[in-house]
Amino acid sequence: MLRIALSVFIMSLIGLFHPCQASGTDTNLARDLRAIVQDPAIRPAKIGVVVESMTTGERLFELNPDRPLRPASNMKLLTSAAALIVLTPEFRYETRLATNGSVRSGVLYGDLVVEGSGDPTISGYFNDNDPVRVFKDWAKRLSDRGIREIRGDVVIDNAAFPESPYGDGWNLDDAYRCFCAPRDAFTFNNNCIQLDIIPPVEKGQGFRFIMEPMSDYIRIVNRLNSRKGAGGDGVRFHYTDPRTLQVLGSKSPGGAATIHYVPVRYPAQFGGFVMKETLAAAGIHTTGNVLCARNCPDITDIAQRKRNGPLETLAVYQSVRLSEIIKVINKLSNNLYSEMLLFAIGRTAGNAYSTGNAAAVALAALEKAGIDARGIVMADGCGLSPLNLVAPRQLARLLGVMAAGPYSAHFSESLPIMSIDGTLKRRLKGSRASGLIRAKTGTINGVRSLSGYMTTYGGEDLVFSIISNGHTSTAAVDRMVDRIILRLLDYKGP
User: Fold this and answer.
1) pLDDT tens-digit map of 248-279
2) Alpha-carbon distance 377 to 167, whole Å?
3) Do 368 and 427 sit in the same domain of this protein?
4) Cβ pair 73, 442 in contact under 8 A
5) Cα(185)–Cα(347) distance, rounded to whole angstroms?
6) Sign of CA dihedral 435, 440, 445, 448
7) Beta-carbon contacts of residue 261 (< 8 Å; ≥ 6 apart)
8) Distance separating alpha carbons of residues 250 and 84, to the nearest angstrom
9) Residue 314 contacts residue 145 (beta carbons within 8 Å)
């Protein structure tokens, strides 16, 4: 068990991470770690490592500690830490359902307006695995008011996030993969659909497709081949228009069903369309269209719509607390959640939103907390951008500051536990490292990172950050990191 409380007490006595070089109290540790990072299998990687004791404040090992490196999803450590500091663990998003019309004889004469706040939780994660739970609740609220028909449009006000749906430097070759889902001020179901593909069992049978949430928003066009001996299975996707998804490639007949998560092109329109379907299923007919403020095929002037009449609030969806949201960000490494959280941080500044402004607010908060943010490049909140840069010493310092701060439990509990859950669930499974490490993983092309906390067998609480850039073998880097972890577990202190 990680003894963060004890570490906080000790650090309050000795000060956080005395800026010294490795003291030589454990020459065997330094020698062994140096040999591990010099393994020829990981050349020509650029490696940065910092290991510090939270028990004594001593730096036990470092390699290129101040070298700015691409952190991949270790960037989420900065985003979630800044969010705790700026927004507090009690922060909740609010998404308002309103109307500019009036109700007469069961008919709402006017629009339904959804005011997007960047809340990523309108999905199944926090709603009993029911992605349309929020829409069902809204339908009930409308029904309770006697509304059976809406003679107006479903208007999604997603104007609060004016930037591109994709982050600066993102690889758009990944745009058909859910981890690269487009960003929007109104998000629904992680801005993706789940598509189960079931191959035919016998000749003459066709593929079956099961989509969740069930909706007519996306039309599936099957272009898959089913041929034995045609090589390995391979499925790819292509939108021929915003709502028509071609499924291409091949799958062997009689093979296992596969699950794919495919982003939608226009998240606000997608959410509005499914909401309209959910209202219809509840007996509430809507005569109009789904319109959005931006990033939609059908745009409307939101300000003008609001001027048609004062907005009356019909329902408000309130998300779970931030302390729960960051578990999705760090344990599951959810990119969309991270981007939306950076968006929330930026909105606190009160000026025009941009990723640059939001990053400035986040880094200023980290600086104020005691983290030297000089040289950090925060091009996005999730780590997908190859433009992000941070040094291992800065990540180690961030981890130490958060462990000593008022939100230590919230922060550490959001991190995956080695061999137990999240992105570390299968890492070092069955090894003696199980349950002793909480750390954030990171992976993009040519980048591998792991930073977090551990408790050694000798009872020493350590913080570490390991980043690799430019390697040719991810497996070799993983072996290096695992060897470092296992060696650190044996550290017994001075």
Assistant:
1) 998 888 888 999 999 999 999 999 999 999 99
2) 13
3) yes
4) yes
5) 12
6) negative
7) 177, 178, 190, 192, 193, 194, 195
8) 46
9) yes
Please tell me the distance from the alpha carbon of residue 187 to that of residue 272, in angstroms, as a whole number. 10
Q: Is residue 494 part of a domain?
A: no
- Kindly give the residue spans of alpha helices, DSSP state H, lying in 236-391: 267-281, 302-307, 322-331, 335-347, 355-369
CATH of the domain at 395: 3.40.710.10
- Tens of pLDDT along 176-216? 999 999 999 999 999 999 999 999 887 668 899 999 999 99
Residues 280, 221, 258, 422, Cα dihedral to 10°: -60
Reported as a pLDDT band with limits 50, 70 and 90, residue 230 is low
Question: Residues, the chain, total?
Answer: 494
Please check whether residues 134 and 219 belong to one and the same domain: no
Q: What are the CA-CA distances from residue 133 to residues 68, 137, 190, 283 (Å)?
A: 43, 6, 14, 16
Three-class secondary structure of residue 344 per DSSP: helix
pLDDT computed for residue 493 by the predictor: 75
Same domain, 315 and 330: no
SS3 content of the chain, % helix, strand, coil (to 5): 30, 25, 45
Give residue for tokens 């998240």.
267
Domain that holds residue 383: 4-89+323-489
Nearest residue to 462 via CA among 189, 158, 56: 56
CA-closest candidate to residue 370, choices 332, 413, 406: 406
> Distance between alpha carbon 469 and the CA centroid of its chain, in Å?
21
Shared domain check, 316 and 397 = no
Note whether 232 and 311 are same-domain residues: no
Alpha helices, DSSP H only, in 348-405?
355-369, 392-404
Q: How far apart are the first and last CA of the chain?
A: 21
Average pLDDT, the chain: 92
Same domain, 327 and 429: yes
Taking the CB of residue 266, how many other CB atoms lie within 10 A of it? 25
Residue 466 resides in a domain: yes
Angle in degrees, CA 487, 488, 491, rounded to 5: 100
- Please report, for residues 71, 86, 150, 294, 373, the alpha-carbon distance to residue 288 in angstroms, rounded to integers and kept in the order given: 46, 40, 8, 18, 50
